[in-house]
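Researcher: Here's my situation. A collaborator sent me these components and asked whether they could plausibly form a single complex. I don't have experimental data yet, so a predicted model of the whole assembly would be a useful starting point for our discussion.
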Amino acid sequence: MGIIPVIISGGVGSRLWPLSRKKYPKPFLPLGESGTLIGATYARAAGLDGVKTIITVTNRDLLHLTDDAYAAVAASGVSNAFILEPFGRDTAAAIALATLHAGQAHGPDAVLLILPADHMITDTAAFAHGVERAEELADQGRIVTFGIPPDRPETGFGYIETDGGDVLGFVEKPDADTAADYVASGRFLWNSGMFCFSAGTMLNALEAHCADILSATRAALEAAQVSTSGDRLDIGVDAETFATVRAHSIDYAVMEKAENLACVPVSCGWSDIGSWGAMAELAPGDGKDNHAGGQAILQGSRNCYVDARDNLVGLVGVDDLVVVATPDATLVARKDHAHAVKDLFAQLEEQDRPEAVEHRTVRRPWGSYTVLEEGAGYKVKRIEVKPGGRLSLQSHKHRSEHWTVVRGVAIVVNGDETLTLAANQSTYIPCGAKHRLENRGEETMALIEVQCGDYLGEDDIVRYDDIYGRS
Amino acid sequence: MGIIPVIISGGVGSRLWPLSRKKYPKPFLPLGESGTLIGATYARAAGLDGVKTIITVTNRDLLHLTDDAYAAVAASGVSNAFILEPFGRDTAAAIALATLHAGQAHGPDAVLLILPADHMITDTAAFAHGVERAEELADQGRIVTFGIPPDRPETGFGYIETDGGDVLGFVEKPDADTAADYVASGRFLWNSGMFCFSAGTMLNALEAHCADILSATRAALEAAQVSTSGDRLDIGVDAETFATVRAHSIDYAVMEKAENLACVPVSCGWSDIGSWGAMAELAPGDGKDNHAGGQAILQGSRNCYVDARDNLVGLVGVDDLVVVATPDATLVARKDHAHAVKDLFAQLEEQDRPEAVEHRTVRRPWGSYTVLEEGAGYKVKRIEVKPGGRLSLQSHKHRSEHWTVVRGVAIVVNGDETLTLAANQSTYIPCGAKHRLENRGEETMALIEVQCGDYLGEDDIVRYDDIYGRS
């Protein structure tokens, strides 16, 4: 039985708005050349010696994004268990769920490696070496933390005070002077949020330090809806029971109280990419320290980070800025104030702005749709269906739809008819008609949909049948 | 015979990119509450005492934009003459064209008032008062300049040195120290580019100082295609002849050499809105000196000017910036470097970027189209047709079109059929079919067009008939 990585995927990462959105959170951002952060985390986990199974704890609405991200990195010979939360209850509950499941499935000696889904690690070998050392300590009944030797007096992280391999204490985010003292002392490491322990050790710790969280998550797991498919397990945590779980972080609930802690220092090029400022530091610069991605054009500007993958962005005479342009929202922030993007995001939420929730492109289990325009009485979308993708058999009470295929071949159920439509062919779905869209081809199918009606919300849908369990 | 305003409309105004584009230049920008700059100029001219006719000199491709702008300000009882240049030959030629026409139509004593189409004047009464004084001087055979008392040592303008009402000399854009001396002396006024003179006086001056420009423009005007409609005159200057005209500014060609100059100082809230910095100065600020237009959300930012009429723009912790977001391009510039937007624009032109030429919305005589998306083998547009608007009878060699009406009623010629389509009705125009779109209703008609084909350029069009003379 090798080590069991547990990928914990939660939180929006609102400091990375406008790329991150509530329904498209940080683990799924296409950052860097290696694809998504969660995909890179999965590949890193699957590449560790002896890994046969990986547990992922995530929100159930993010499962199809997770599947896509994992499929993109294609790890062979690894089975997957997905623990699907109906809503977040912080890291103590998430780790309790994973530990309870692993204890049942693999016994109390199974060693778990907790990995946040949205961190970056550039030195995989150093990481793997640290994991080996942690596994030995976990076998000896220790709860192992991974400490990152700090290279700057960062005030955005918690620190672990160590004395050789022993943990003297956890300290919360310090002020600037204290952080500088910490770095100077050499005894303080950043708390990376990665942990390693045996299932039995953690269950004992949860029982000792937050028994209520353990018992409530156990009940939610016992009431879960479980489905298996090949070597894949989906565990849908029961919402009613899970609602009673106290939300608490594993640091507060266990780490600050436990006495059998150990710390493994790892210098593995770790970053939590906590803000656009951190992202900018990771990006290579030109001769003027600018990093200009996409369609950025700079004139007399220095030390700027620009992400213009969708639209042209011109900079004139500016320094030290982060500029991120998406099709519906643009951020302009001073690099050293980039942490305050969180406050801007809070403003957007207060104002119920859709730009806080979703991108113009919304991914679905069958593919995606992109809103091209909304006007009075109409909406225009591009709908893309993956090979094998099949939308639900559905109807609408308030809108008709005009479909024109522009790529691939669509199989369309429209009332009593089934049509095969290639590019440059179209059909009309009258209001109330049962219809369905499917791609049986091997390339992505795309069509342009023009909706007409007095109400055009996504919730005007009656589903009669759905292969993704949404009817 | 009252004074004859001559509105000179030329130049891109590239410092106001991304709002200004080559084919949508500065006079047509929707700046401020009063609509376009050229519309405001026209209204100001029409409102002067005794004005019966207005001459406009502009590029012929901009005529329909000019018509729209003038229609929006609806000046009654004024007849219009449009002198349509095939291309620009600078201000000496433009003024020569207007003066030659006015001299022929109204005699040598007709007094002309030259007004650049892209300046802003906030105190109309002071302006009108200055014009009255200038008219008296023009009647006495003087070429009158309008000088603006400077309120800052601006290095972007030419200055007029005066001694009471007499002009001692014209000086080009000074350096900062010289400009400061000018302002301190009290003898220097900004050269506003507005002039007043009788036709006879200017014809004599042109003959004396740049006879080649006068004779070549006279030839181009004599070869012009002239059409009249009611009290409207359209004079299409002959391209072949006009190409021989030397391009020169009126300042160099005449003003710096003429001896019968006079200067009328006018304090009329004048601005040439020469850059986004100037635009920002005109805009009212909030408590932190921010001017946030449209969907701008600011967090800890000061002294910023944001134009976010189309998209959400979030600012975090930044000062002294200009941010202008359009659907396809965003500018981020330091306010006091905003003049260098011109250099950014030059970069865009070198790179043949479409964002230098047109907006996603392109205006046509019959209305407008907006490109919503372009992909491999397809393009999606919203097409809007004004009441009474009628596209040419046309066909395409490389594309088919799917039309779905979303507002108003479309009259569609499609091959041998004529269809009447209301919202939620559609038709398919096969490749090669003759077709035409018309709006006979009283509200704007809008449809979504999905083009499919192997080539989707605007130049794939065969026009069989066109009410705007384009076939």
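Model: Some features of this prediction you could bring to your collaborator: Chain B touches chain A through 57 residues (CB under 8 Å). The radius of gyration of chain B is 24 Å.
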